Amino acid sequence: MRNRPYVICHMLPSVDGRIVIRGWNLPNATREYERTAATFEADAWIIGRISMEPYAGKARVPRRASPEPIAREDFVAPHEASSYAIAIDPSGKLRWSASDIDGEHVITILTESVSDDYLAFLQAQGVSYLFGGKARIDLPRALAKLRTKFGIKRLLLEGGGKINGSFLAANLIDELSILVGPVADGSTGTPTLFDVAKRRAPARGLRLLSMEKRAGGIVWLRYNVATAAMSAAGRR
Ligand SMILES: NC(=O)c1ccc[n+]([C@@H]2O[C@H](COP(=O)([O-])OP(=O)(O)OC[C@H]3O[C@@H](n4cnc5c(N)ncnc54)[C@H](OP(=O)(O)O)[C@@H]3O)[C@@H](O)[C@H]2O)c1
Protein backbone atom coordinates (compact mmCIF):
# COMPACT_ATOMS: atom_id res chain seq x y z
CA MET A 1 0.00 0.00 0.00
CA ARG A 2 1.14 3.54 -0.72
CA ASN A 3 2.59 5.40 2.21
CA ARG A 4 1.67 8.74 0.70
CA PRO A 5 -1.37 10.38 -0.91
CA TYR A 6 -2.04 10.09 -4.65
CA VAL A 7 -0.94 13.48 -6.01
CA ILE A 8 -2.73 15.32 -8.81
CA CYS A 9 -1.11 18.57 -9.93
CA HIS A 10 -3.98 20.81 -11.02
CA MET A 11 -3.12 24.16 -12.66
CA LEU A 12 -4.27 26.93 -14.97
CA PRO A 13 -1.33 27.87 -17.24
CA SER A 14 -1.14 29.99 -20.40
CA VAL A 15 -0.20 28.19 -23.63
CA ASP A 16 3.42 29.06 -22.86
CA GLY A 17 3.23 27.58 -19.36
CA ARG A 18 3.17 30.81 -17.36
CA ILE A 19 0.92 30.77 -14.31
CA VAL A 20 0.54 34.34 -12.99
CA ILE A 21 -3.03 34.93 -14.15
CA ARG A 22 -3.29 38.59 -13.10
CA GLY A 23 -4.04 40.65 -16.21
CA TRP A 24 -5.14 37.73 -18.38
CA ASN A 25 -8.77 38.85 -18.64
CA LEU A 26 -10.26 35.34 -18.65
CA PRO A 27 -13.56 35.99 -16.86
CA ASN A 28 -14.65 32.38 -16.24
CA ALA A 29 -11.27 30.76 -15.81
CA THR A 30 -11.15 30.73 -12.01
CA ARG A 31 -14.65 29.27 -11.78
CA GLU A 32 -13.72 26.64 -14.36
CA TYR A 33 -10.58 25.87 -12.38
CA GLU A 34 -12.46 25.41 -9.08
CA ARG A 35 -15.25 23.42 -10.71
CA THR A 36 -12.73 21.03 -12.23
CA ALA A 37 -10.77 20.77 -8.98
CA ALA A 38 -13.97 19.66 -7.19
CA THR A 39 -14.42 16.74 -9.61
CA PHE A 40 -11.26 15.11 -8.24
CA GLU A 41 -12.89 14.64 -4.82
CA ALA A 42 -9.55 15.17 -3.11
CA ASP A 43 -9.17 15.22 0.69
CA ALA A 44 -6.81 18.18 0.59
CA TRP A 45 -4.97 20.76 -1.49
CA ILE A 46 -1.39 21.90 -1.00
CA ILE A 47 0.35 25.08 -2.18
CA GLY A 48 3.64 26.91 -1.69
CA ARG A 49 4.20 29.68 0.83
CA ILE A 50 4.05 32.41 -1.85
CA SER A 51 0.76 31.17 -3.31
CA MET A 52 -0.73 30.85 0.20
CA GLU A 53 0.05 34.46 1.24
CA PRO A 54 -3.28 35.92 -0.01
CA TYR A 55 -5.30 33.27 1.86
CA ALA A 56 -3.43 33.17 5.18
CA GLY A 57 -4.01 36.63 6.67
CA LYS A 58 -1.88 39.16 8.47
CA ALA A 59 -2.16 38.27 12.15
CA ARG A 60 0.58 39.44 14.53
CA VAL A 61 2.94 36.80 15.95
CA PRO A 62 3.28 37.74 19.64
CA ARG A 63 6.48 37.38 21.69
CA ARG A 64 6.00 34.72 24.36
CA ALA A 65 6.35 35.52 28.03
CA SER A 66 7.48 31.96 28.85
CA PRO A 67 11.14 30.99 28.31
CA GLU A 68 10.17 27.26 28.12
CA PRO A 69 11.28 25.79 24.80
CA ILE A 70 8.61 24.12 22.66
CA ALA A 71 9.43 20.59 21.50
CA ARG A 72 9.72 20.09 17.73
CA GLU A 73 6.80 17.67 17.67
CA ASP A 74 3.97 17.60 15.16
CA PHE A 75 0.82 19.33 16.39
CA VAL A 76 -2.67 18.25 15.35
CA ALA A 77 -5.11 20.97 16.39
CA PRO A 78 -8.67 20.01 17.30
CA HIS A 79 -10.83 20.21 14.19
CA GLU A 80 -14.09 18.90 12.77
CA ALA A 81 -13.22 19.27 9.09
CA SER A 82 -12.43 16.23 6.99
CA SER A 83 -10.73 18.21 4.23
CA TYR A 84 -7.55 20.21 4.45
CA ALA A 85 -5.75 23.30 3.11
CA ILE A 86 -1.99 22.76 3.35
CA ALA A 87 0.95 25.15 3.02
CA ILE A 88 4.66 24.47 2.68
CA ASP A 89 6.21 27.24 4.76
CA PRO A 90 9.73 26.17 5.75
CA SER A 91 10.64 29.17 7.87
CA GLY A 92 7.22 30.07 9.27
CA LYS A 93 6.37 33.26 7.37
CA LEU A 94 2.60 32.84 7.04
CA ARG A 95 0.61 34.82 9.61
CA TRP A 96 -2.58 32.80 9.82
CA SER A 97 -5.64 34.71 10.95
CA ALA A 98 -7.85 31.58 11.07
CA SER A 99 -7.47 27.82 11.36
CA ASP A 100 -9.55 27.14 8.27
CA ILE A 101 -9.99 28.30 4.68
CA ASP A 102 -13.64 28.03 3.63
CA GLY A 103 -14.17 25.29 6.21
CA GLU A 104 -11.05 23.31 5.32
CA HIS A 105 -8.66 22.83 8.24
CA VAL A 106 -5.23 24.42 7.82
CA ILE A 107 -2.06 22.33 8.09
CA THR A 108 1.31 23.98 7.65
CA ILE A 109 4.53 22.10 6.93
CA LEU A 110 7.56 23.62 8.64
CA THR A 111 11.21 22.96 9.28
CA GLU A 112 12.57 22.72 12.82
CA SER A 113 14.30 26.07 12.33
CA VAL A 114 11.12 28.05 13.08
CA SER A 115 10.97 30.04 16.33
CA ASP A 116 9.19 28.98 19.51
CA ASP A 117 7.14 32.18 19.26
CA TYR A 118 5.87 31.02 15.89
CA LEU A 119 4.93 27.54 17.16
CA ALA A 120 3.06 29.07 20.12
CA PHE A 121 1.28 31.37 17.66
CA LEU A 122 0.17 28.43 15.48
CA GLN A 123 -1.11 26.52 18.51
CA ALA A 124 -3.06 29.57 19.71
CA GLN A 125 -4.57 30.01 16.25
CA GLY A 126 -5.58 26.33 16.13
CA VAL A 127 -3.45 25.68 13.04
CA SER A 128 -2.01 22.15 12.76
CA TYR A 129 1.67 21.81 11.91
CA LEU A 130 4.01 19.06 10.78
CA PHE A 131 7.79 19.09 10.67
CA GLY A 132 9.12 18.19 7.26
CA GLY A 133 12.79 18.22 8.26
CA LYS A 134 15.44 20.01 10.30
CA ALA A 135 16.59 22.74 7.92
CA ARG A 136 14.87 21.76 4.69
CA ILE A 137 11.63 20.01 3.79
CA ASP A 138 11.84 16.34 2.94
CA LEU A 139 8.76 16.08 0.72
CA PRO A 140 8.30 12.27 0.80
CA ARG A 141 8.46 12.40 4.59
CA ALA A 142 5.96 15.27 4.74
CA LEU A 143 3.55 13.43 2.42
CA ALA A 144 3.83 10.23 4.47
CA LYS A 145 2.86 12.23 7.57
CA LEU A 146 -0.14 13.74 5.79
CA ARG A 147 -1.30 10.22 5.04
CA THR A 148 -0.73 8.71 8.48
CA LYS A 149 -1.70 11.66 10.71
CA PHE A 150 -4.63 13.04 8.71
CA GLY A 151 -5.66 10.10 6.53
CA ILE A 152 -5.14 12.11 3.33
CA LYS A 153 -5.31 9.76 0.37
CA ARG A 154 -5.88 12.13 -2.53
CA LEU A 155 -4.05 15.43 -2.69
CA LEU A 156 -4.33 18.30 -5.16
CA LEU A 157 -1.02 20.07 -5.75
CA GLU A 158 -2.02 23.56 -6.85
CA GLY A 159 1.16 25.57 -7.34
CA GLY A 160 2.99 27.75 -7.67
CA GLY A 161 5.87 26.85 -9.93
CA LYS A 162 8.46 26.32 -7.20
CA ILE A 163 6.47 23.82 -5.16
CA ASN A 164 5.34 22.04 -8.35
CA GLY A 165 8.98 21.88 -9.47
CA SER A 166 10.04 20.40 -6.13
CA PHE A 167 7.36 17.72 -6.36
CA LEU A 168 8.34 16.96 -9.97
CA ALA A 169 12.02 16.68 -9.10
CA ALA A 170 11.17 14.35 -6.20
CA ASN A 171 9.01 12.23 -8.54
CA LEU A 172 5.92 12.74 -6.38
CA ILE A 173 3.34 13.68 -9.02
CA ASP A 174 1.03 10.91 -10.21
CA GLU A 175 -1.26 12.90 -12.46
CA LEU A 176 -1.26 16.28 -14.18
CA SER A 177 -4.45 18.23 -14.86
CA ILE A 178 -4.04 21.50 -16.74
CA LEU A 179 -6.65 23.95 -17.90
CA VAL A 180 -4.73 25.71 -20.65
CA GLY A 181 -6.00 29.28 -20.96
CA PRO A 182 -6.16 30.93 -24.41
CA VAL A 183 -3.31 33.30 -23.54
CA ALA A 184 0.20 33.78 -24.92
CA ASP A 185 1.78 35.41 -21.89
CA GLY A 186 5.41 35.85 -22.89
CA SER A 187 6.67 37.36 -19.64
CA THR A 188 10.17 36.07 -18.92
CA GLY A 189 11.17 35.54 -15.32
CA THR A 190 7.66 34.89 -14.01
CA PRO A 191 6.59 31.57 -12.41
CA THR A 192 5.83 28.69 -14.78
CA LEU A 193 4.11 25.34 -14.31
CA PHE A 194 7.30 23.70 -13.02
CA ASP A 195 10.25 25.73 -11.75
CA VAL A 196 13.03 23.57 -10.40
CA ALA A 197 15.63 25.29 -8.26
CA LYS A 198 19.39 25.05 -8.85
CA ARG A 199 19.58 21.99 -11.04
CA ARG A 200 17.62 20.79 -13.97
CA ALA A 201 15.17 18.07 -12.95
CA PRO A 202 15.09 14.98 -15.11
CA ALA A 203 12.32 15.41 -17.67
CA ARG A 204 9.27 13.25 -17.06
CA GLY A 205 7.23 11.77 -19.86
CA LEU A 206 3.46 12.21 -19.78
CA ARG A 207 0.74 9.85 -21.01
CA LEU A 208 -2.33 11.66 -22.28
CA LEU A 209 -5.49 10.46 -20.49
CA SER A 210 -8.05 12.89 -21.89
CA MET A 211 -8.59 16.22 -23.59
CA GLU A 212 -11.68 18.37 -23.48
CA LYS A 213 -12.74 21.74 -24.83
CA ARG A 214 -14.11 23.97 -22.08
CA ALA A 215 -15.98 27.29 -21.99
CA GLY A 216 -14.03 30.40 -22.93
CA GLY A 217 -11.52 28.63 -25.17
CA ILE A 218 -9.93 26.69 -22.30
CA VAL A 219 -8.58 23.20 -23.05
CA TRP A 220 -8.49 20.66 -20.22
CA LEU A 221 -5.68 18.13 -20.53
CA ARG A 222 -5.12 15.21 -18.19
CA TYR A 223 -1.96 13.14 -18.09
CA ASN A 224 -0.37 10.34 -16.10
CA VAL A 225 3.18 11.21 -15.09
CA ALA A 226 5.79 8.56 -15.88
CA THR A 227 7.69 7.31 -12.85
CA ALA A 228 10.95 6.84 -14.74
CA ALA A 229 12.92 9.93 -15.77
CA MET A 230 13.63 10.39 -19.48
CA SER A 231 17.24 9.70 -20.37
CA ALA A 232 19.47 12.66 -21.18
CA ALA A 233 19.97 11.24 -24.68
CA GLY A 234 16.26 11.52 -25.35
CA ARG A 235 16.26 15.27 -24.66
CA ARG A 236 17.05 18.09 -27.00
N1 LIG B 1 -2.31 29.66 -12.59
C1 LIG B 1 -2.34 28.79 -11.59
O1 LIG B 1 -2.93 27.69 -11.70
C2 LIG B 1 -1.64 29.12 -10.30
C3 LIG B 1 -1.81 28.27 -9.18
C4 LIG B 1 -1.11 28.57 -8.01
C5 LIG B 1 -0.28 29.68 -7.96
N2 LIG B 1 -0.15 30.47 -9.02
C6 LIG B 1 0.75 31.65 -8.99
O2 LIG B 1 2.07 31.20 -8.73
C7 LIG B 1 2.81 32.28 -8.16
C8 LIG B 1 3.69 31.79 -7.03
O3 LIG B 1 4.54 30.76 -7.50
P1 LIG B 1 6.04 30.62 -6.94
O4 LIG B 1 6.69 29.56 -7.72
O5 LIG B 1 6.66 31.98 -6.93
O6 LIG B 1 5.84 30.22 -5.42
P2 LIG B 1 5.19 28.96 -4.63
O7 LIG B 1 5.56 27.69 -5.28
O8 LIG B 1 3.75 29.27 -4.37
O9 LIG B 1 5.91 29.10 -3.23
C9 LIG B 1 7.29 28.94 -3.17
C10 LIG B 1 7.73 28.97 -1.74
O10 LIG B 1 7.18 27.85 -1.04
C11 LIG B 1 8.19 27.29 -0.23
N3 LIG B 1 8.54 26.01 -0.87
C12 LIG B 1 8.08 25.50 -2.00
N4 LIG B 1 8.63 24.29 -2.27
C13 LIG B 1 9.43 24.04 -1.27
C14 LIG B 1 10.28 22.97 -0.96
N5 LIG B 1 10.40 21.88 -1.71
N6 LIG B 1 11.00 23.03 0.16
C15 LIG B 1 10.89 24.11 0.94
N7 LIG B 1 10.10 25.16 0.70
C16 LIG B 1 9.38 25.13 -0.40
C17 LIG B 1 9.34 28.30 -0.23
O11 LIG B 1 9.03 29.27 0.78
P3 LIG B 1 10.12 30.29 1.41
O12 LIG B 1 10.39 31.30 0.35
O13 LIG B 1 9.45 30.87 2.59
O14 LIG B 1 11.33 29.46 1.74
C18 LIG B 1 9.23 28.88 -1.61
O15 LIG B 1 9.80 30.13 -1.80
C19 LIG B 1 1.78 33.31 -7.70
O16 LIG B 1 1.82 34.41 -8.57
C20 LIG B 1 0.46 32.58 -7.84
O17 LIG B 1 -0.59 33.43 -8.14
C21 LIG B 1 -0.81 30.21 -10.21
Secondary structure tally: strands: 10
How large a portion of the residues is in β-strands, by DSSP E?
25-35%
What value does the average pLDDT take?
A: 94
Q: Tell me the Rg in angstroms.
A: 18 Å
SSE string = EHEHEEEHEHEHEEE
Helix content: 10-25%
Distance between the termini: 37 Å
Which oligomeric state applies?
single chain
Chemical compounds bound to the protein: NADP nicotinamide-adenine-dinucleotide phosphate
The assigned structural class equals alpha/beta
Describe it.
The structure is a single chain. This protein is of the alpha/beta class and 236 residues long. It has 5 helices and 10 strands; from the N terminus they run E-H-E-H-E-E-E-H-E-H-E-H-E-E-E. The mean pLDDT is 94. The protein binds NADP nicotinamide-adenine-dinucleotide phosphate (NAP). The site of NADP nicotinamide-adenine-dinucleotide phosphate has 25 residues, from strand 2, helix 2 and helix 5.
Write the layout of secondary structure elements.
Layout: E1 6-11, H1 29-39, E2 44-48, H2 49-56, E3 84-88, E4 100-101, E5 104-110, H3 116-125, E6 128-131, H4 139-150, E7 154-157, H5 161-169, E8 175-180, E9 204-214, E10 218-229
Parallel strand pairs: 1-7, 1-8, 2-3, 2-7, 3-5, 5-6
Antiparallel strand pairs: 4-5, 8-10, 9-10
Bound molecules: NADP nicotinamide-adenine-dinucleotide phosphate.
